[in-house]
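Hey, can you fold this one?
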Amino acid sequence: SDLAAMGAVPAWATLALTLPKVDEDWLARFCRGLFTLADRHEVQLVGGDTTHGPTTVITIQAMGFVPPGRALRRDGAKPGHALYVTGTPGDAGLALAVAYGQATVAPEPAAYVLNRLERPEPRLAQGLLLRGIASAAIDVSDGLAQDLGHILERSGVGARLDVDRLPLSPALIASLDRNAALRMALSGGDDYELCFTAPPDQAARLEKVTASWDCRCTRIGVIEAEPGLRLVRADGSIFHLERLGYEHFG
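Sure. Predicted structure:
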């Protein structure tokens, strides 16, 4: 997903695996999942390490290629550039809430959001097509609001995010009230969608390339000169968000 956010073609990966004991059934299922995704994107496992330890730890480093000067970065957003997101953020966050007993969801939407959490699809094809169109990009792993903040910080700009434009899945809408669904879309995390910006003169080109995508692409705001992220409702009121996203060391 990080490679997708840079418009890169994945090539290799390394794996460091720490296990408390050898569980052949678990290893078989783990390898099946790992290599199913790796083979689909022609990624080779080229090295790493296997060790014994008190708890299971999985560390994967992915590497790829991007032509010189063509990488999507976080520091190119400018005032007036439009703000976009792929897919429907918030689904994986809802699945986590269900897993932790913080939400109750009907069986059908529960199955959908669980798949979004456990089998996320990296937006590699989208990242490649955004080369030369997007001015800045990042993948949404810690929460849309929080990850967008990294673009704003690196670019030295702010943004207005129109929260009522956020693309919400039917599962999210059916499971939470409107405000809770919006909060989940903004701060849930683990969606691995792309958040990116693009200048106005790329709008027609962007519309053309997104027509062939297998996921939604939604304009959700605009980059502004004033620093900070402003969450605004359709009626102009401010949407308050207590938590921007996942805190790694909270």
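Residues 10 and 41 are 7 Å apart (CA to CA). Let me know if you want another pass with a different chain boundary.
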